[in-house]
Structures are given as structure tokens and as C-alpha cells.
TrEMBL record:
Keywords on record: Membrane, Transmembrane, Transmembrane helix
Domain spans labelled Prepilin type IV endopeptidase peptidase: 51-152
InterPro entries: Prepilin_IV_endopep_pep
Organism expressing this protein natively: Kangsaoukella pontilimi
Segments passing through the bilayer: 21-40, 46-64, 76-105, 125-150, 162-179
Gene3D superfamilies registered for this protein in UniProt: 1.20.120.1220
Protein name from the UniProt record: Prepilin type IV endopeptidase peptidase domain-containing protein
MF annotations from Gene Ontology: aspartic-type endopeptidase activity
A Gene Ontology cellular-component term: membrane
């Protein structure tokens, strides 16, 4: 949670968030480089992986620290997923329909709820972004795996709730590399 102990606390939290975002960028670059080295694709694939994993890492870190998922990052994830799908010759319509449907649900969810005590609209928008990247075929795989990961996290931390974005990001990464689990 952001500390509200004066402007110095807010500045410190902003600095931490920026540092974490920079770290997430380096992590994404390393993953993308690994994909190229292992023969997972050309420069386009490496750039796509860097964007995908960079945004996922940033969203996971931000949610873990603040229990919020920034709209600017989730909307960037959705847009970049659809652009990448189109640029790489993927089935844009099949990726866009569920992603944009989830985007609409997330927007409505944000308008009509206070996003407390349950999955918030940011998590829904994050899932829309993951769907834009991975397509509808892997939606259930990612969601089920994320729920399991969050459950394990809550058990290990002895909590009844937790930030969902880190579990969703990790599940998306596992499915990206491992393919379908169902």
C-alpha cells in the first residue's frame, strides 16, 4: 500500500515504483535475449517477448506493492497484444473479440464497484491484455493456473487475500513457454 505519511512517503513510494519498473524492463530484456539465444524466434519475437514480459513484470510488481493495477499499463498490454498479433500474422479477430469483451467488463466493473475485497477492474483489464497476447485458446489455462498460484501464495503467506496480478502474470509466462495445461 502507498504510505500517506506526508509528501516524503509518497515520493519514496514513487521512486520505488520507478526502480521496480526499470528492473522489470531489464528482466524482460533478459528473457527476450534468452528466447533469441535458444532459437525461439527472430528479432520480432524477441521484441514481442520483451514488451509482453516487461509489461507483465511491471504490472505484477506494481500490484504486489500497491494492491492496484494501473490502467495505463493494462491498456498498453491490450493494445500491444493486438498490434503484435496483427503484425505477426495472427488471428486478430479471435484475439480481439474476447480481449475487448473483457475490456468492456473491466470498465463496467470499475464504474459499478469499489474494487475492494475482490478481483478489481485492473485485474480484469490485465486478463484482457493477456488474452490479447495469447488468444482465446489459452484463457482457461491462464486463469486456472493463476487461481492455483494465488491460492498457494495465500496459504504460504497465511493470508486470505492477495494481489492477483503477480499470479496472473506468472501464469501467463508459464503458459507462454509451456503451452496449454488443460
Amino acid at each position: 500500500m502507498m504510505h500517506m505519511n506526508g509528501s516524503f512517503g509518497v515520493v519514496r513510494d514513487i521512486r520505488r515504483a520507478v526502480r521496480d519498473l526499470i528492473g522489470a524492463g531489464f528482466l524482460a530484456a533478459g528473457i527476450a535475449g534468452g528466447i533469441v539465444i535458444l532459437g525461439g524466434g527472430g528479432e520480432g519475437s524477441a521484441l514481442a517477448a520483451a514488451i509482453f514480459f516487461g509489461l507483465l513484470a511491471a504490472l505484477a510488481v506494481f500490484d504486489a506493492r500497491t494492491e492496484t493495477v494501473p490502467d495505463v499499463l493494462t491498456l498498453s498490454l491490450i493494445l500491444s497484444g493486438l498490434v503484435t498479433t496483427s503484425a505477426m500474422g495472427g488471428a486478430l479477430g479471435l484475439h480481439a473479440v474476447p480481449a475487448l469483451g473483457l475490456l468492456a467488463v473491466g470498465v463496467l466493473q470499475g464504474w459499478y464497484t469499489d474494487d475492494r475485497g475482490a478481483i478489481g477492474s485492473g485485474d480484469t483489464l490485465l486478463f484482457a491484455g493477456v488474452t490479447a497476447w495469447l488468444g482465446p485458446w489459452l484463457m482457461a489455462d491462464v486463469l486456472i493456473l493463476a487461481a492455483i498460484l494465488l491460492g498457494v501464495q495465500c496459504i504460504l503467506m497465511r493470508r486470505t487475500t492477495g494481489a492477483f496480478a503477480p499470479a496472473l502474470a506468472l501464469a501467463a509466462a508459464i503458459v507462454w513457454f509451456g503451452g496449454p495445461i488443460l
